[in-house]
Amino acid sequence: MPIKDQIKNFAKKLVVERPDPPTLRALVSARKPAAIHFRDDGIVPNNPHLPMLLYRGAVNLKSRRFPPDVVIDTLFDMNGWGRSWRDTVYDFVHYHSQIHEVMGVARGTARIECGGVKGRILRLKAGDVAVLPAGTGHRLIEASRDFLVVGAYPQTGTYDECTDTRERPDAIKRIAKVRKPKTDPVLGARGPLLRSWRRQAART
Fold first, then answer.
1. How far is Cα 102 from Cα 184, in angstroms, rounded to an integer?
2. How many domains does the chain have?
3. Range of the domain at 62
4. Which residues form a coiled coil (predicted)?
5. What is the SS3 string spanning the chain?
6. I need a surface site. Which of 4, 74, 97, 136 has the fewest CB within 10 A?
7. Chain mean position to CA 62
8. Which of 4-13, 79-88, 163-172, 194-203 has the lowest mean pLDDT?
């Protein structure tokens, strides 16, 4: 999301009560994520080495004390993924060539196309978390009226938004240079993202 959305969300953080680390850990399910690979489809480059990771039911959002978007936002922030935003997902195909992205569903359900038109349409619901490596195409197909996503980014990398096929040659070069994050946005420094992405990179 643009900088203005991140600034707006930062302002919200200053006025809401946020769960502490022990409370957060109790709300997180240490499930193994599904790894989904997407090939370059000629339009969207996707990521040649790193799979998208999908954590089903990663966060228990039934806390009466904290709103679900606050829980997810705080979880990502605690694990080193910041510059967050709260909104829906764009309904046009786009990807980020200089940074990875995590999206956690705070409310509602949606069908989101990942990997471009030749990728997969995934049904996401509240509590699910998807980690998209740089280059992964995504767009909203349809969503419930109450659909709300919290998005965030690792500490390294620069936000950009690629939608034009003329950008492909340069975007592919940028994707190859994006550093792997130091932490898993859901499970922290020892989370499965680090092992999964390290193994995949070693195979190539």
1. 10
2. 1
3. 3-203
4. none
5. CCHHHHHHHHHHHCCCCCCCHHHHHHHECCCCCEEECCCCCCCCCCCCCCCEEEECCCECCCCCCCCHHHHHHHHHHHCCCEEEEEECCCCCCEECCCCCEEEEEEECEEEEEECCCCCEEEEEECCCEEEECCCCCEEEEEECCCCEEEEEECCCCCCCCECCHHHHHHHHHHHHHCCCCCCECCCECCCHHHHHHHHHHHHC
6. 4
7. 21
8. 4-13
> How many CB atoms lie under 10 A from the CB of residue 143?
19
CATH number at 67 reads 2.60.120.10
- pLDDT tier at 62 (50, 70, 90 boundaries)? confident
Closest CA to 135 of 48, 197, 50, 46: 46
Contacts of 84 (CB under 8 A, 6+ apart): 6, 9, 10, 73, 76, 77, 150, 151, 152, 153
